Amino acid sequence: MSIRHGLLALLERGPRYGSRLRTEFESRTGSTWPLNVGQVYTTLSRLERDGMVVQDGSDDAGHDLYTITDDGRAELRNWFETPVDRTSPPRDELAIKLAMAVGAPGVDIRDVIQSQRHHTLKAMQDYTRLKAQALADVPANRDEVAWLLVVEQLIFQAEAEARWLDHCESRLVRLAEAAATEPAADPATVRGPARTPAGRTRSQR
């Protein structure tokens, strides 16, 4: 999640101070990725260092206001126009967990999958309820539309995860069935031909 670009997008709407940026960011994303004020001001300091924002006076309450610069607008346009890179996907804890659970002593990977599936389906139900609440009234402003997009992405993500878990379980079942039907190895083949005390095999005598 690019906090840097998210703040630039909000600043393009006009000067903002730190806590207002945090509130608007969380409103736009439905608090899916909560921020603290420290993160906001740290990011603003870096943006200011890079010439993307400048401090521009203060409001009536004495809050320092930040304004986006031309360089900041160019950076924001580039972010919107550039596809999100998928060549180096972020680490996924669930994928790592299942990969490590395969063959781990004392771990039944089917139990791991079942537990995760229950959690994922519960999350999907919760997201679906949130979507229904959002659609109860026609979205009235851009923040409500933005939140609807975010919650729908969360639903699609949970659906995909549930399908992947089903696939993992099916694959494990197929592998177990294949292992059960493999013929047992011939002990004589494994040990090799018997040898006489003289070191010759019986076939050589």
Describe what this molecule looks like in 3D.
It is built from eight helices and two strands. It has helices at about 5-10, 20-30, 35-50, 70-80, 95-100, 110-135, 140-180, 185-190, and strands at about 55-60, 65-70. The chain is about 60% helix and about 5% strand. The chain is mostly helical. Strand 1 and strand 2 form a beta hairpin. It has a two-stranded antiparallel sheet. The radius of gyration is 29 Å and the shape is elongated.
The percent of residues in helical segments reads 55-70%
| Order of strands, widest sheet | 1-2
Distance between the termini: 75 Å
Poorly predicted runs are none
Number of helices: 8
Structural class: mainly alpha
**Largest sheet geometry:** 2 strands, antiparallel
Number of strands: 2
What is the molecular shape? elongated
Could you tell me the radius of gyration in angstroms? 29 Å
Sheet-strand content, in percent, reads 5-15%
Order of helices and strands: HHHEEHHHHH
Mean pLDDT metric: 86
Identify the notable features of this structure and list them briefly.
205 residues, mainly alpha, two-stranded antiparallel ribbon, 8 helices, elongated
How do you describe this structure in short?
This protein is mainly α. The chain contains eight helices and two strands; from the N terminus they run αααββααααα.
